[in-house]
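dumping these here so i dont lose them again. two proteins, back to back, each one seq then structure tokens. dont judge the mess
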Amino acid sequence: MKNAQQIEEALAELSALLGASGYLGGYDERKRHSRDTSTARSCLPIAVLRPGNTEEVAGIMRVCQRIGMPVVPQGGLTGLSGGAVPTEGSVALSLERMNGVIEVDAENASLTAWAGTPLETVQEAARCAGFEYPVDIGARGSATIGGTIATNAGGIRVVRHGMTRQHLLGLEAVLPDASVIRNLRPMLKDNAGFDLKHMFVGSEGCLGVITRAVLRLSPAPHDRYTVLLGMPGYEAAIACLASARRHFQAELTAFEGMWPAYWSLACRMVAASRPPLGTGHGIYILMETSSRDRGWLEEWLEDCLEAGVVSDGVLADSLSAARTMWSVREAIGDVDREIGAHLNFDIGLAPSQLGEFAEACEKALGDLVTRDILHLGHIADGNLHVIVPVPAGDEVTGTEVERRLFDLLAERGGSVAAEHGIGTLKRPWIDRTRSADEISLMRVLKAAMDPKGILNPGKVIP
């Protein structure tokens, strides 16, 4: 058990290791690293550690391992499940100084970057080299590569390109005992024993600190077309998705759904003049293709209108028009602030079940909420975001909302976390998704790799 003198000596050792730019002990700096974007309660770390390289990360883990000091890895602090919030008596290990693209390898279609590099920086480096890094989320400007790997981020183009896991060729990670797992080779095929890099994908910083990554790049699309569709209801949306998959096949890159309550609120916030599509539809779909032929898309849209699957549609005729359409979908962060206190759910189900699930939520939660429940998400991926207004500080109502919603989800065999992770906020509900044997195996893996339990304690595993 560590005592005050041990902590003081360890902090002095960490300060000497990292220097003035790497060790921050002031209140303002600690406050900035006391929470992520979620509704989880903030907690001041006893210090903020900002290593500049892998060796310094290993040095941090060596010191903290010796006295059992908790370490909470942090990326861009954009998480929505409390996974980067410090725990009592912990240090925050921020990767913000380990930032930058190390190499773009055009011959191998790969890119190597430090874990603290913002996603948008990686996307731009890939674009400049004639490629694309297709993982894309609204927080691209601040979310880091290490964070997207640690949560297996998805985003808007999963239907075509898959989750982050599909784009990871290699990584480097520091384990709790300060040893370093290093495989930074740009290889698609490597079956020499266990594929260790996948242990860290979606692990939320509980098994190791990701420091560098080799990412797989995709060919840049020739053209990208965006179309906004109004439909009578969710059944029409599923029929439209099936048609789009048959028609565009691999060129279908996004198929996003927005229910009317979300659509109306978001349009009022981001489209000051007039919405890009009229109101009164049962659901709004934002679809993107990488087709080379605009006429092909126009013909498909006309067929959908004639068949009555689509009630109205607008094809973006410029990049600015497409950005306006996407701004409504990506307003979710601003919508969160607009409606005040709320619970933000990120559930996974088969795409055919999302419409019925949204209706079931409205019925099950109707006596608990007095404002509109907002639904939107990645329909083609079976990922629905549900925003439920709950009065600030009303933990009793909040817990009951969670119980009812996650019970509905368990009945349908869904996941309590499609892309936002478990963190602390969804940890009490992981048994709605994972069996007792699965949770037991997670505990075994955690205990084997982190026997003192110092790395991101209290996250993911109940």
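---- next one ----
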Amino acid sequence: MSTLQHFIGGTGTPGGAERIDVTDPATGAVVGSVPAGTAQDVDRAVAAARAAFPGWASTPVPERAAVVQRISDGIRERAGEIAASITAEMGSPITFSQKVQVAMPVGSSAAFAALAADFAWTEEIGNSLVVREPVGVVGAITPWNYPLHQIVAKVAPALLAGNTVVLKPTEVAPLTAQILAEITVAAGLPDGAFNVVHGTGPVVGEAIAAHPGVDMVSFTGSTRAGKRVSVVASDTVKRVALELGGKSANVILDDADLGKAVKVGLGNAWINGGQTCTAWTRMLVPAARQEEILDQLVAAAERYTVGDPTDPSTRIGPMSSTAQQERVRSYVERGVADGARVVFGGPGSVEGLDGAYVRPTIFADVEPDAVVAQEEIFGPVLSVIPYADEEQAVEIANSTVYGLAGAVFGEQEHALAVARKLRTGQVDVNGGAFNILAPFGGYKQSGNGRELGRFGLEEFLETKSIQR
């Protein structure tokens, strides 16, 4: 069991007497605890970050990049410990934790370090010298579904840009933030450049968003919470970057390779137990081929093992918490009540498992405006929506308030043409691989700004014009 403190000014800092337990969702066992932070804890962390800012901002870029690379190396060296921690605190299957939950932050931080040498830190436009400088103190607020990746996607570019950071990790899965803090010390990051304040969103998150000493807030989480961050941050007119929810459509065209479209499509719908903002939770299929596709989907779904997340063969573990379990179950029940046809899974408990498990579910004949087709469920629930023609498919794909991700399967040029019509921040064509250097972010209520690669670095920089 890990009993953590805040991390402020380069050292562990006790909080008050109130603490928040961290629970293994597979067993219900308490695996750790963190202090329930206060606005005063945020004040101390911001003061430490502001004190460290001048020195870190003036550190030459190659030295900052070397620190970020050492952070990447440190994550890789502690990969086994990190993967086990993520599995224990939020239930991600251990194989997925090893291959994705750890590999992504290793890769993204190394990619940022490598960007530094060729990035246009300065450029000349006519008689102007355009200089890119750090924003200042960055407040980072991160979620539980990819607890380390979401932290590193903010912290690595913020530090490379010369900013200092105050992090509020999720209280659901906060344990890896402590490991990262230890890694930053070993990497040679100056005291105060990275700080961690544990606690809840309404207390610590709002204190960070409102703090006059914080120059920027980068938030990943629900659209509802993101709206609140924007409102609170507006009083100080600080920069706000939001990576929010999604309800991504996977458009399967008539000329698609159905076997590949179904296999990859289901995998991306149920990735991390469906607890992924980019999950392709709507599968749009030609109406005349729905039954053929459903047969293939059910056959593929039967190969998804639900069980103990520490077992390497498990593909879907528990939901991150009992609250999330109840949320997903309620959506499954709503889908049934609204007339969707259950072809796999459905309401009820997972036989033989007592943790925060749900039955992975596939609905067919889902109406495009149904609740399960419009709202983010954040669980292993796939809605199959038939369409009459390509024009209707595009209309359905763009019919939600979200625009984070999506997919198209079909003849390559045909699929690319349809992908251009989707109002979403990223689209995979025929299973195109995730690119750690490509900009990541959304349209509409999926947020603003971009993470990862050059675009992710630019989010944490101010631009100054010097006329000569």
